[in-house]
Amino acid sequence: RDIGLGTSPWEVPFGTLVGAESFEAMDHWYTGYGDMSAFGGNAPDQNRMYQHGLEYLEKGFPEIDYITSCNIAYGELVE
Questions:
Q1: What distance in Å separates the CA atoms of residue 13 and residue 11, rounded to the nearest whole number?
Q2: Confidence of residue 16 (pLDDT cuts 50, 70, 90)
Q3: What 8-state DSSP symbol labels residue 15?
Q4: Rounded-to-integer distance, Cα 42 and Cα 61, Å
Q5: Cβ contacts of residue 2 below 8 Å, gap of 6+?
Q6: CB 38 within 8 A of CB 68
Q7: Count of other CB atoms within 10 angstroms of residue 2
Q8: Which residues of 38-50 are buried (b: 16+ CB within 10 A; e: fewer)?
Q9: Fewest CB atoms within 10 Å of the CB: 3, 33, 48, 59?
Q10: pLDDT at position 21
Q11: Which 8-state DSSP code applies to residue 23?
């Protein structure tokens, strides 16, 4: 597990994982494209994603994983 994820200033969190099942699911995300090209990786270009959408991702990044659902938890987060 990459415990350093989210510690760099350019990494913006978009959610909180709750429970062992969430972490187990994340452990299976494909990470082979690496970081953004500015940092030496081959990840999708955000501008091209915005301009060309899903077609750009499907054509150039066939192994990429997608978040297809999420739940909003109200109240305090218990860790």
A1: 6
A2: confident
A3: -
A4: 10
A5: 31
A6: no
A7: 10
A8: eeeeebbeeeeee
A9: 3
A10: 86
A11: H
Reported pTM = 0.67
| 20 and 79 Cβ atoms separated by less than 8 Å | no
SS3 letters across 47-61: HHHHHHHHHHHHHHC
Interval 42-53 mean pLDDT: 94
Quick one: which of 67, 44, 42, 41 has its CA closest to 56?
44
Tell which residue, 27, 31, 28, 19, has the closest CA to residue 61: 31
Per-residue model confidence (pLDDT) at position 30: 92
Q: How far apart are CA 49 and CA 54, in angstroms?
A: 7
Nearest to 67 by CA among 40, 12, 30, 38: 30
